[in-house]
Design a protein that fits this description.
A hairpin with a 2-residue loop joins β3 and β4. The protein is α+β, with helices and mostly antiparallel strands and 123 residues long. The protein is built from two helices and seven strands; from the N terminus they run ββαββαβββ. The termini are close together. It has a domain of 84 residues. The strands form two sheets. A five-stranded mixed β-sheet has the order 1-3-4-2-5. A two-stranded antiparallel ribbon has the order 6-7.
C-alpha cells in the first residue's frame, strides 16, 4: 500500500506536516479560465503562485500553491484563511483546495468547510 506524501517540496504538494496548513489552486478544476489566465489573475491579486504536482488516485495534477500557514493552535476549527477566501472563491470557485484536496466552500457564516459531495476515498 502506498503511503501519502507528507510535506512540501519545490516540486510536490502533499498532506501538510503537523501544525501547518495551506491553500492551493487545482488547475484541473478551473471552470471559466485556462491555467495561464488563472496564474495571471492570481498575480494580479497579489499572490506569488508556486507550481507544484499533487498525487491523486488517478495520477498527478498540476497545482498552484498560494499560501502556507503555521497554525498557532492546530486543534482550532478557525481558519487562518478567512480574510482571503471570499475573493479566491468568487474568482476560482471549486478550484481552491485545502490540504485534503477537497474544494473549500463558504457556508452562511463565512467559514471554510470541506464540500462533502466531493470526498474521494483515500488509498
Amino acid at each position: 500500500m502506498h503511503k501519502p506524501f507528507v510535506g512540501l517540496t519545490p516540486y510536490q504538494i502533499g498532506w501538510p506536516p503537523s501544525g501547518y496548513t495551506f491553500l492551493y489552486l487545482d488547475f484541473d478544476m478551473l471552470a471559466n479560465m485556462t491555467p495561464l489566465e488563472a496564474l495571471k489573475k492570481l498575480e494580479s491579486m497579489g499572490y506569488k503562485p508556486q507550481l507544484r504536482l499533487k498525487e491523486t488516485t488517478s495520477g498527478f495534477v498540476t497545482c498552484a500553491l498560494l499560501k502556507v500557514v503555521k497554525l498557532d493552535d492546530p486543534s482550532s476549527r478557525e481558519s487562518p484563511f478567512e480574510d482571503i477566501l471570499d475573493d479566491l472563491h468568487e474568482t476560482f470557485e471549486g478550484a481552491i483546495r485545502s490540504p485534503s484536496g477537497h474544494p473549500i466552500s463558504i457556508d452562511s457564516k463565512n467559514r471554510p468547510e470541506i464540500a462533502e459531495e466531493e470526498l474521494e476515498p483515500i488509498r
